[in-house]
Structure formats: structure tokens, C-alpha cells
Design goal:
single chain, alpha/beta, TIM Barrel, 9-stranded parallel β-sheet, about 45% helix, globular, binds S-adenosylmethionine
Length: about 475
């Protein structure tokens, strides 16, 4: 019944295959010879299968775990260097017809104020985000065909791209909306979206149906097959995610890798990103009422194993996590983080962080300038780059760049150029000082001499007032 090439949810995310994989992982979690073999395969940096990765996840030997962390860090360095891409979520509407039991936007929540931004309000929010220095957004909406129809999403995307305020610009809009039709995905593609993001929440069908008791999201197959429809509609950068805390993490981990294998088998390209959200407290949601919360250590191990299993896939961590956890997961593979996020509708234009319409409590509440400085102090280059998608390097073309090792001649200089823009336009004096020194040092890590020369020239031009250069 298990068939990674099938287009039926229950065949490519096959429950029996997951159960058998978990049994196999339990039986082999102390099988030193097999574990050695899997680790050696992982060192080739071409990824692992869901079975292999599940054995490593089940293994609790501290020496093996240390080796996994070291290898994850090495793979991260090889494919992503020391760059961390920055983004912010923008909540457009919290109207929702679904009954998701873990989300405060659920339909039955009668006391949470419902709000949907007008185009003028979106403009104000985007200007506030541009004034912080953001160039990349992920728009977030509840599912509501009447209040949040696709036309509203499309109009909002156009509004966002059209705003030119001082030197600000949003150059990539990623979209996190409910599963929809091929036709609608085609319209999103035409609107120029970056990644289409849809969290699976849980791959466990029975739990999925209980956790989504009412509304269109109840349909497990329609939700699970959404990425196939998105790709059929022409979107080739899709982002997966499991909401850790809802189901057993080993089940989810295995299911998610099977999903990645399925996309690769059917469309020839795996997920562009994997997000790793954990369930958080929010309005009428208490995470303690869910039995499957995971410790920070397990969470870091999952991140490291995702990095090893799908080396070319970007990994995203949000401000759901604290500064301390974010530091740990960036070491073992996370390549993209949000900063200065407000998870409430209209939150960026409020003086004080509003909490009444927040989707979840934000752990990391620092400003973007503070986050950028902290990244640099920890040896990471904050990157505001959006070049790939603007140059048409999406899907398999981006993966090809990754696979032939050219990322260091492309993403690295782009990171330095966009960091320079941030330093010139938005940074505090202290951040600027640290950043200028970092850019000077990091030129040396552009391998191609000609590219290095060009990159220095572009940074100089940004210094002199010009903007928006890219490789
Ligand atoms: N409504 C869209 C959908 O149906 O997929 C997605 C937008 S929703 C604003 C983004 C994500 O937030 C959800 O997919 C879910 O995983 C996550 N989320 C919901 N409640 C959460 C909570 N209490 N803690 C952490 N994340 C949560």
C-alpha cells in the first residue's frame, strides 16, 4: 500500500509504513553496526531515508548524538555557510471557520477580537516592517472563504509589493494560507509569491481528524495533498511543517520525511523549507493539555536530524522559541529565522506589543536591530537576500545551485550586500560597527576572485546610496 509516488495521502503517508519504521527503529536503536553505516551514509551529505533517520532518532547513545550534531553543523556550513536569512510574519486576518483545538483563532473562540486589515492598514503595517529593515514577509491568515477570499489575499500581496517607502521594499512575500485548489495556487504563483507554506500540523490521520473536528481543514487528504496541487499550479517552492506537541514526535518526524520523499519522487524537487514550530500557550490554549510536548534536547535533536536527512532544504525557526533555543538550533542546521515578530493582526503599528489577537505567545521579543547584532556576535551573517526567487532560481534550479556548491559564490555575496543595506538604512551605531567589520572579514569567504571584486564594488555602491544589487 505504501507508495511514495502515489498522489493519495494515505498511500504516500502510509500509517502502516510509519508504524513499521518505528518498530524497525526500536529494534535497531542499539545496533552499532547499522548506526555506523547510517552515519557514514549521512557523511556523504546526500540525505537519509525516513527509515535510516528514524533509527538515529531512536538512538540515545550520547556519542552518536554528539556525532549527529557535529555532522549537522558541518552540513549546515557546507550548504548554507554562516548565513541566516531573516523574515517576519504579517498577520492579515484572524477570521477563521475551522475548529483547530490548538489554535486560538478557532471558530468557537467567541471572546478573541476578530480583525481583518484593510489595504490602507496593510500599507501602514508594511511601512512599519520596512522601517525595521525587513525585506521578506510571510503573510498569515485564518481560513474563511467569506472574510478572507483568495481575491483579498491577491490584492494584499499586490499592495505589499507596491509599497516603496524611503529605501524600503518587500522583495519576497511567502504565503501561509489554508489548503486550496490548483486554480488558486496558480493565481498565487501569478501574484509573484515566494514560498507557499502549509503546516501539516500532524501526519497522524486519526489524531488529525480529532484535532480538526470542524471546518474545511477537517479533511485530512485534502490538506495532505495540498503541496501536490500547489506544485501542479506552478508553485515550486513549498514549505512543510509539523506542529510539535500534538502527536508523538517520532511519528511526525517519519511522516514529514516521507512527505519530502514523496515530493521529490513525484515532482523531482523536495520541499524548499521545513519549519519546526512547537505548540505554545495562546489565549484559550494551554499546551499542558496536550500530552506530546517535547523537551528542548529532543527538539534540537530533531532539527539536527532534519538537517542531515534533507541537506538542501532550508530550515525555519520562529520567535515561538527563546533566544537560548534559537542559538542551539542555528548551530545544527536552522538557516532562516523571524525577528521582531508580532503575531497579532495589526500588531506592528501598535506602540506596545498587543496580546489580545496574538496567535501564540512570542518568546523572543527583541527588536530586529538586537536580533541582527546577536546573530553577528554569534558568528552568523544576517541575510536579507531575496535574489534567488527574483532571478527565477526556484525549485530544482535553486537545488542545483546548492548541489554544485555555487551557493558560496552567490548567496554569500548577496548576504553581505543586503546586510550592508540594513546597516546603512536601519541599524543602530553599535550594530553598524559590528556589521561593517563582519562584511570586511567575510569578503575573504567568497571563493571566486571575480565575484569577490564585484561584491566589494556593490557594497561600496550601497555605501554611496545605491540599492538592490544581486548575483
Ligand atoms: N490558517 C492557515 C492553515 O490553515 O494552515 C495557516 C495560518 S496559521 C496563522 C499558522 C500556523 O500557526 C498553523 O499552521 C499552526 O501550525 C500554528 N499554530 C496554531 N496555533 C498555535 C499555537 N497555539 N502555538 C504555536 N503555533 C500554533
Amino acid at each position: 500500500m505504501y507508495d511514495p509516488k502515489s498522489l493519495k495521502a494515505e498511500e504516500f503517508i502510509c500509517h502502516e509504513e510509519i508504524e513499521e519504521t518505528l518498530k524497525y527503529a526500536d529494534e535497531n536503536c542499539n545496533n552499532k553496526a547499522l548506526i555506523r553505516e547510517i552515519l557514514d551514509k549521512a557523511k556523504l551529505m546526500k540525505g537519509l531515508s525516513h527509515r535510516e533517520a528514524s533509527v538515529l532518532l531512536a538512538c540515545e547513545d550520547p556519542e552518536v548524538i554528539e556525532e549527529i550534531y557535529a555532522l549537522a553543523a558541518e552540513i549546515k556550513k557546507k550548504f548554507y555557510g554562516n548565513r541566516i536569512v531573516m523574515f517576519a510574519p504579517l498577520y492579515l486576518s484572524n477570521y477563521c471557520v475551522n475548529g483547530c483545538v490548538y489554535c486560538p483563532y478557532h471558530h468557537q473562540n467567541g471572546h478573541i477580537p476578530r480583525r481583518k486589515l484593510t489595504q490602507a492598514e496593510i500599507r501602514d503595517e508594511v511601512i512599519a516592517l520596512q522601517d525595521m529593515g525587513h525585506k521578506r514577509l510571510a503573510i498569515e491568515l485564518g481560513e474563511d472563504p467569506v472574510n478572507n477570499p483568495l481575491e483579498y489575499v491577491l490584492e494584499s500581496i499586490k499592495t505589499i509589493y507596491d509599497i516603496k517607502h524611503k529605501n524600503g521594499a518587500i522583495r519576497r512575500v511567502n504565503v501561509n494560507i489554508a489548503a486550496t485548489t490548483v486554480e488558486n495556487y496558480r493565481k498565487l504563483k501569478e501574484a509573484g509569491i515566494g514560498t507557499y507554506i502549509l503546516f501539516q500540523e500532524t501526519y497522524h490521520k486519526e489524531s488529525y481528524e480529532k484535532l480538526h473536528p470542524t471546518g474545511p481543514k477537517h479533511n485530512y487528504a485534502y490538506h495532505t495533498e495540498a503541496m501536490d496541487r500547489a506544485m501542479e499550479g506552478g508553485i515550486d517552492d513549498v514549505g512543510l511543517g509539523v506542529l510539535y506537541g500534538l502527536e508523538l514526535y517520532r511519528y511526525e518526524f517519519c511522516g514529514q520525511l516521507m512527505h519530502a520523499e514523496h515530493l521529490e519522487a513525484v515532482h523531482g524537487v523536495g520541499p524548499h523549507t521545513i519549519s519546526v514550530p512547537r505548540l505554545k500557550k495562546a489565549d484559550d490554549i494551554d499546551p499542558d493539555q496536550f500530552d506530546n510536548g517535547i523537551s528542548d534536547d529532543t527538539f534540537v535533536k530533531i532539527c539536527a536530524l532534519i538537517r542531515i536527512s534533507v541537506p538542501y532544504t532550508g530550515m525555519i525557526i520562529s520567535t515561538r522559541e527563546s533566544q537560548a533555543v534559537r542559538e542551539k538550533v542555528m548551530k545544527v542546521g536552522v538557516s532562516q529565522i523571524s525577528g521582531a515578530s508580532r503575531t497579532s493582526v495589526g500588531g506592528y503599528t501598535e506602540e506596545v506589543r498587543p496580546t489580545d489577537t496574538e496567535q501564540f505567545d512570542v518568546s523572543d521579543q527583541r527588536t530586529l536591530d538586537e536580533v541582527v547584532r546577536w546573530l553577528m556576535e554569534n558568528g552568523h551573517i544576517p541575510s536579507f537576500c531575496t535574489a534567488c526567487y527574483r532571478e527565477g532560481r526556484t525549485g530544482d534550479r535553486f537545488m542545483a545551485l546548492c548541489k554544485n556548491g555555487q551557493i558560496q559564490n552567490c548567496c554569500h555575496p548577496n548576504a553581505l550586500i543586503t546586510l550592508k543595506e540594513f546597516l546603512m538604512d536601519y541599524a543602530s551605531d553599535e550594530t553598524r560597527k559590528i556589521g561593517e567589520a563582519m562584511i570586511e572579514r567575510e569578503f575573504a569567504n567568497i571563493p571566486n576572485e571575480k565575484t569577490r571584486g564585484l561584491a566589494k564594488g556593490y557594497v561600496e555602491k550601497v555605501h554611496n546610496g545605491e540599492r538592490d544589487f544581486r548575483f
